[in-house]
Amino acid sequence: MTMQKGNNNNHQKSFEVSIDSKFFDDDGRLNDSGNKWTGSAHIITAVIGSGVLSLAWAIAQLGWIAGPSMMLLFAFIIYHTSTLLSVGYRTGDQLNGKRNYTYTQAVGAYLGGYKVKICGIIQYVNLFGVAIGYTIAASISMMAIKRSNCFHNSGGKDPYFDQLWWLSSLAAAMSFTYSTIGLGLGVGKVIENKGIKGSLTGITVGTVTQTQKVWRSFQALGNIAFAYSYSLILIEIQDTIKSPPSESKTMNQATLISNIVTTFFYMLCGCFGYAAFGDSSPGNLLTGFGFYNPFWLLDIANAAIVIHLVGAFQVTASLFTQHGNIHCSKENTKWSTKWICLQILSASCLVISLAAGIGSVAGIVTDLGVYKPFHAMY
């Protein structure tokens, strides 16, 4: 800071304050500190805990051919659409264009009009539902720890979201912990069974009715798709990444890393879980091992789930309380080959989403005949 005086003593003192611009971005905000590794940690935190433990059940409904194939298909779809969406973080030039700090801002910049409200409602409903799911899943894991030990012993958005990398890193480590435990127990079960269970086409008609087979297959597709779902918070994660290089370039690297890691774990956990339990694969892989030894290992896995979901809840809920179509709208000419392919992809994903929703509703109706809401079952 420098101070200057005029020649006349009666002149007021004037101050000139100089702030080093290297600490601020082109919008005048403090520079973000994120990189491809922190971005990957955020994505893994938001993704792996969502569905990895239910993938064995999903493969059990679809079988050895369709189950793994659908996992690989959705891995490709989420990577491709995420690279398209990441371009929407800046309007125009990817280094100097105007930033869109949130998903809804990106929609507004590229689509505008009523589509902002529609996409915003979808985003918030999704985040709200996921946050509730995380809360329930964490509660189930805590109850599992209690039951296991009893058996044997007779929001508003954080303004420093980009500084929560340590929480996402911890949560990601926890997701690897319980996923690895589930994988190890699955491998052990396969060895114990001295064979691989399951069939090429999934659960057989007879074990379930033909109608149940259809509903369960729809629900399985939804489980696999949901296991890869993070696009609605991708822009917010991208807003934590520093530049140069362009945020979209770094985000694409983070997306690729996280996709490879999650798909690897998904394939291992889902396939070994199905190989261990076959048609009787549980909705939560860890519950399939009951309350027997090694019960302490299951306690560690369930505790890791709780810790992971705390981090995942922070990532999701903090974004909830703040304010593939984006790229397509301005970069592609209508009726061009790329535009048509994107429309087909969008329509296909919509059909799968509707089918999964129908299957889930059918599953809820069936479960209500067995379980009583708001009553604990031991």
Task: Please characterize this protein's 3D structure.
The strands form two sheets. The chain has a two-stranded antiparallel ribbon. It is 65% helix and 3% strand. α3 packs antiparallel against α4. The chain has one domain (33-204, 226-333). The chain has helices at 36-51, 55-86, 103-110, 114-153, 165-193, 210-227, 234-238, 247-277, 295-320, 325-331, 337-368; strands spanning 2-4, 14-16, 90-91, 98-99.
Key features of this structure:
single chain, 378 residues, mainly alpha, two-stranded antiparallel sheet, two-stranded antiparallel ribbon, 11 helices, 4 strands, 65% helix, 3% strand, globular
Task: Specify the biggest β-sheet.
Answer: 2 strands, antiparallel
- Domain count: the total is 1
Q: Order of strands across the widest beta sheet?
A: 1-2
H-E order: EEHHEEHHHHHHHHH
- N-to-C terminal Cα separation, in Å? 68 Å
Q: Strand-residue fraction?
A: under 5%
If you average the pLDDT, what whole number results? 71
Low-confidence stretches: 1-18, 151-162, 318-326
Form type: globular
Tally the beta strands: 4
Tally the helices: 11
Backbone structural class = mainly alpha
Overall radius of gyration: 24 Å
